[in-house]
Design a protein that fits this description.
It contains 28 helices and 23 strands. The protein is α/β, with parallel strands linked by helices and 730 residues long. It folds into 5 domains: 177 residues, Rossmann fold; 75 residues, Orthogonal Bundle (Arc Repressor Mutant, subunit A), CATH 1.10.10; 160 residues, P-loop containing nucleotide triphosphate hydrolases (Rossmann fold, 3-Layer(aba) Sandwich), CATH 3.40.50.300; 155 residues, PCRA, domain 4 (Orthogonal Bundle); 46 residues. Helix 9 crosses helix 10. The chain is globular. Bound molecules: adenosine-5'-triphosphate and magnesium ion. Magnesium ion binds next to helix 2. Its EC number is 5.6.2.4. Belongs to the helicase family. UvrD subfamily. One of its GO terms (biological process) is recombinational repair.
Length: 730
């Protein structure tokens, strides 16, 4: 009975409760994910459930892969048939089989945020709306949240017909939907929405999947949104064996529509639900857990629970105060070097957690200088690079020739002389006939006003695409992609350009081929469609190299569910963590606090927290106050690390210092210096004389921009900037 070993009584209860709805509600590191893994093994081995009747939804594809490996380890058997993956990847699987019944083709494209932007822009232009008032990004956000809440364009328009902006956004949304359909494409939200729609409206399909999924698991349930909730409600409608695990204290995707009520209302929504609470934490030492508890207890929007651990007290969490982000990076770097030298840890044991991706740069610089191997999770953006996107657009067009967005992207890449005016003529024609652009290109004789030369290049373009269409059927994914890369002439164009940049773009295209190689090893017999879906569905967290023994850098959001022996939680400053946009809202502030709790609870043995008084980020230099979350940690739980790093080589040499320094700084009531105004002269301790050119209220404080005589513009927080006012004698 392998699968019950290594579980406590409560966890066992969770595993053995196989029939009916079950909520496992428990704090970080209490073994929720472990219960799912063991339970799946138990069902297969003991209850003789077919793997294909199990569905397990994880937060990332990577988590799914890990879970699969664990289950495999427990069973020593094949677990290929379990449906394990994210909400999105599961929906793609269903849609590829079923979407024809709602009028799409099975080879639909999946549009990412850039494609969405292009589409929304088209809508705005077509509707002749003012581009200042109607900007793509906010509109995409509105559309996305409407979709999460399952509100369709007509309802939104009806609700808001008196509101000029919203009514028009509703109309853009409607047009956007039409365009997606015409391109045979779905955006990310659609993947869930259309699946729900299928299950709701088509009895045959509903029955099929309800019967199939006898047992359903959802990890990180606190981060599901409305449409995801509907989805599992439908899927579990027949057997009712739905086991969700989550922690309301770790709900950190409110901004993306996640609804904490899903977890709080589980018992009401799923009849006969049982709730199991786990209270023992197996991940962190006592001292780390105390820090986590002391922070999260300041939230009001929670059920309230306390975690305990049987682990040793361990080392105290350490706070390092830095002059600027460079000193912070040096501190972390030196710590890594020292701990490695001591021999107890390896690079793979360390993680640097920050609130925003932009913070990684200073650590990268010092790591490179010191030859410390590292990887950045999420910030890499390999798939956002132009050449990679171009190549993907080719593949998408070949997979789905109705995809106008992709076609437009590459019709003249590499340059083949199909310019904007030629394309304009073609699109004029398609807007009359309603055909796809590619369809029109095949029907070239019907289009007026094209030059003979244009016709020729278009013909060789369609001949090439047609050739690809035929080849796709007979070639493996990897060979096929290689063929596309070379025979489009893209590589050749880059080679001729022969610049440093074009070289690195060639490298990236080659790297993309190795992505295809990986794919072929992992998905035997996978098609181009599978490959593309796979690429689209990689979340930021998944888009990382798999090298093992390197330091990881990632955002706190990306770290959910993970654990590391040593955690550096950096950039703990007001306005950064908590992030500035949360400063005015209690609700958002609580989400930031939960995020901070997630960060601290990733640590197993050592936790280093740091902040910088002066930080340059996005090109601006600002003074900051230490994060309010630091103030919430009692003095005796956190020891201050002395500034001079040399001094703290030996652990016991570290001096414990009263934290009056931070406290004073934090509580120092802002002396508002009421008479400050634009034009006031100031003298700064380091930067000398300057003139105030901008003043903005930030909470009780003010942010000022000062033009220094020798240093240019700097942004300062009035309360803490080391400045004096210089009164001019009139
Ligand atoms: N009963 C147990 N005995 C020993 N170790 C355990 C036990 N339960 C869980 N663990 C270990 O504790 C760690 C945390 O478990 P797990 O990741 O499942 O927690 P979780 O509740 O899912 O955490 P999070 O909320 O961060 O997702 C893992 O290393 C896991 O292997
Ligand atoms: Mg977990």
């Amino acid at each position: 009975m392998d699968y019950l070993q290594g579980l406590n009584e409560k966890q066992k209860e969770g595993v053995l409760h196989t029939e009916g709805p079950l909520l496992i509600l428990a704090g970080a590191g209490s073994g929720k994910t472990r219960v799912i893994t063991h339970k799946i093994a138990y069902l297969i081995e003991e209850k003789r459930v077919f793997p294909s009747n199990i569905l397990a939804i994880t937060f990332t594809n990577k988590a799914a892969k890990e879970m699969k490996e664990r289950v495999e380890g427990l069973l020593k058997g094949r677990v290929e048939d379990i449906w394990m993956g994210t909400f999105h990847s599961m929906c793609v699987r269903i849609l590829r089989r079923e979407i024809e019944s709602i009028g799409y083709k099975r080879n639909f494209s999946i549009y990412d945020s850039l494609d969405q932007k292009t589409l929304v822009k088209e809508c705005i232009t077509e509707k002749n709306l003012n581009k200042e008032t109607f900007q793509e990004k906010p509109i995409i956000n509105i559309i996305s949240s409407l979709k999460d809440d399952m509100i369709d364009p007509d309802d939104y328009i009806n609700e808001n017909y008196k509101d000029y902006y919203r009514r028009n956004v509703g109309e853009i949304y409607g047009l956007y939907e039409e365009k997606l359909k015409k391109n045979n494409a779905l955006d990310f939200d659609d993947l869930i929405l259309k699946t729900v729609f299928l299950l709701k409206s088509d009895e045959r399909i509903r029955e099929k999947y309800q019967s199939k999924f006898e047992y359903i698991f959802v990890d990180e349930y606190q981060d599901t949104n409305k449409s995801q909730y509907e989805l599992i409600k439908y899927l579990s409608g027949k057997h009712g064996n739905i086991c969700v695990v989550g922690d309301e204290d770790q709900s950190v995707y409110g901004w993306r529509g996640a609804d904490i009520r899903n977890i709080l209302n589980f018992e009401r929504d799923f009849k006969g639900a049982e709730v199991i609470k786990l209270e023992q934490n197996y991940r962190s030492t006592g001292n780390i857990l105390d820090v986590a508890n002391s922070i999260i207890k300041n939230n009001t929007e929670r059920k309230g629970k306390k975690l305990w651990t049987a682990k040793e007290r361990g080392q105290y969490a350490t706070l390092k105060i830095n002059f600027d982000e460079k000193e912070e990076a040096n501190f972390v770097t030196q710590k890594v070097i020292d701990l490695i030298e001591e021999g107890k840890y390896k690079y793979g044991d360390f993680v640097i957690l920050y609130r925003t991706n932009a913070q990684s740069r200073s650590f990268e610089e010092t790591f490179i200088r010191n030859n410390i191997p590292y990887k950045i999770v999420g910030g890499l953006k390999f798939y956002d690079r132009k050449e990679v996107k171009d190549l993907i657009a080719y593949l998408r067009l070949i997979q789905n020739p109705l995809d106008d967005i992709s076609l437009r992207r590459i019709i003249n890449v590499p340059k083949r002389g199909i310019g904007a005016s030629t394309l304009g003529k073609i699109e004029k024609y398609t807007s009359q006939t309603g055909e796809s652009i590619y369809g029109a290109l095949l029907d070239l004789d019907k289009i007026q006003g094209l030059s003979g030369r244009a016709r020729n290049v278009i013909k060789s373009f369609t001949a090439m695409i047609n050739k690809f269409l035929a080849m796709k059927e007979i070639m493996g994914v990897r060979d096929f992609i290689e063929e596309v890369v070379y025979s489009t002439g893209y590589i050749k164009e880059l080679e001729e350009e022969n610049s440093v940049e074009s070289q690195s773009r060639i490298e990236n295209l080659k790297e993309f081929i190795s992505v295809a190689v990986d794919f072929e090893t992992n998905y035997e017999g996978g098609t181009l469609e599978d490959f593309l879906a796979n690429v689209s569905l990689l979340s930021d967290v998944d888009k990382t190299d798999e090298r093992k023994d390197v330091v990881t850098m990632m955002t706190v959001h990306g770290a959910k569910g993970l654990e590391f022996p040593v955690v550096f939680l950096v950039g703990m400053e007001e306005g950064l963590f908590p992030i500035s946009r949360a400063l005015d809202s209690i609700h958002d502030m609580e989400e930031e606090r939960r995020l901070c709790y997630v960060a601290v609870t990733r640590a197993e043995e050592l936790l280093y927290i740091s902040y910088a008084n002066l930080r340059t980020i996005y090109g601006n230099t600002t003074y900051s106050l230490p994060s309010r979350f630091l103030k919430e940690i009692p003095d005796d739980m956190l020891k201050i690390c002395k500034n001079d790093q040399r001094k703290e080589k030996q652990e016991d040499e570290i001096e414990y210092e009263e934290r009056t320094d931070i406290k004073n700084r934090f509580e120092k009531k802002v002396n508002l210096k009421e008479d400050i105004q634009i034009g006031s002269k100031v003298n700064h301790k380091m930067w000398g004389m300057g003139t105030v050119v901008q003043i903005k209220k930030v909470g009780e404080d003010k942010e000022i921009v000062v033009a220094f005589e020798n240093k240019g513009l700097k942004k300062l927080l009035l309360s803490i900037a080391p400045i004096e006012f210089v009164r001019e004698v009139r």
